[in-house]
Amino acid sequence: MSAATHASPLPRRLLAWSAEMAPGLALCGGVALAGTALARLEAALFGRAWVDGLVLAILIGTALRSLWAPPKACAPGIALSAKTLLEVAVMLLGASLSLPALLAAGPGLILGIAAVVVLSILASYGLGRLMGLPEKMAMLVACGNSICGNSAIAAVAPVIGAQARDVASAIAFTAVLGVGVVLSLPLLVPVLGLDEVQYGILAGLTVYAVPQVLAATAPVGALAVQVGTLVKLVRVLMLGPVVLVLSLRAGTQGGQKPGLSRLVPWFILGFLGLALLRALGAVPEALLPPLSGLTAALTLLAMAALGLGVDLRSVAKAGPRVTAVVVLSLLALGVVSLGVIALHG
After folding, report:
1. How many CB atoms lie under 10 A from the CB of residue 42?
2. Are the C-beta atoms of residues 207 and 232 closer than 8 Å to each other?
3. Does this model's pTM top 0.85?
4. Are 97 and 226 within 8 A, CB to CB?
5. Residues 226/214, Cβ–Cβ less than 8 Å
6. CB count, 10 Å around CB of 265?
7. Are 140 and 157 in contact (CB under 8 A)?
8. 3 state SS for the chain
9. In this structure, are residues 77 and 27 in contact, taking their beta carbons and an 8 Å threshold?
10. What is the pLDDT along the chain (345 residues), one digit of tens a residue?
């Protein structure tokens, strides 16, 4: 009796947590199933799914969010799907990565990625200041666009002493425009005649967040997913040196040093760890298909949550100058990225 009494709080907490997450998870699951069903309907009618199920899940979620605000009870489950489950999916993707094949690209690509990040930050910051944005806001936009969206903004904000309203405005674009990039980028494949490796490089250099690379590259092919993820991870790792430079520049003027988890998120470390284990042969081949299926399912669920979290009105609230700076700097990033692809061959 005593043992049961001591053991009961944990199951009760798990049940309470599950009940809290259930409404949002169910809503995301419904949107994900709708996206999958529409993709299958496309394939049945036209011979192939012209719009991938991941993209359809985002579109359905966004449309639903624009017409109807989900009840507060759904918020925890949507947040869990959009962040934690998607981070788990990115981590698991490391098990399918063939490091020797991808590292054969050589140091030239890594140097190119670093150059793109530096040039993009300088161009975006200069453009922001030219269009009248305050210094700190311009820096938030530049780092968010050039490195990894929300994560970069969250890491840079305390270092430069940015105000909460500036952080909120900058983050609004990583939600809205990030989805726009994910949806529109695959359309460039036939227009520019890109192969899977070239498209993976382009997606890795331009898409805001690591998890969103999955959605942007999955419709193109598995090799595009792997290349895009690797390129994006190298880009994200530039956050450490950038924050260090900004920290030294800020000195003691209200800046704070972010923790290691801000600079290198846990799921990136997990991704790299699984990729290393795969390279060492420590991941059994029999595990790869179920891991791939789990990764796909979690990604689909998370894309539905991503759509459900997009408020299209947030762009208008952020102001026309911020909108113009972000869009123009994103276009500049795309042009520079295509230059890197051309040089890479």
Report:
1. 17
2. yes
3. no
4. yes
5. no
6. 20
7. yes
8. CHHHHHHCHHHHHHHHHHHHHHHHHHHHHHHHHHHHHHHHHHHHHHCCCCCCHHHHHHHHHHHHHHHCCCCHHHHHHHHHHHHHHHHHHHHHHHHHCCHHHHHCCCHHHHHHHHHHHHHHHHHHHHHHHHCCCCHHHHHHHHHHHHHHCHHHHHHHHHHHCCCHHHHHHHHHHHHHHHHHHHHHHHHHHHHHCCCHHHHHHHHHHHCCCHHHHHHHHCCCCHHHHHHHHHHHHHHHHCHHHHHHHHHHHHCCCCCCCCCHHHHCCHHHHHHHHHHHHHHCCCCCHHHHHHHHHHHHHHHHHHHHHHHHCCCCHHHHHHCHHHHHHHHHHHHHHHHHHHHHHHHHC
9. yes
10. 455 455 567 788 889 999 999 999 999 999 999 999 998 998 888 876 667 787 788 889 888 988 888 999 999 999 999 888 877 887 887 787 666 655 665 677 778 888 888 988 999 899 989 988 888 888 988 898 888 777 678 778 777 877 766 776 777 666 677 778 888 898 888 888 899 989 999 999 998 877 678 878 988 888 898 889 888 878 877 877 887 788 777 654 544 555 555 556 677 778 778 888 988 888 888 898 899 889 889 988 988 887 888 766 665 666 677 778 888 888 888 888 888 888 766
Residue 291, CA distances (Å) to 88, 184, 217, 283, 297 in order = 11, 28, 18, 11, 10
Length of the chain: 345
Distances 190 to 92, 216, 330 between C-alpha atoms, Å: 30, 15, 21
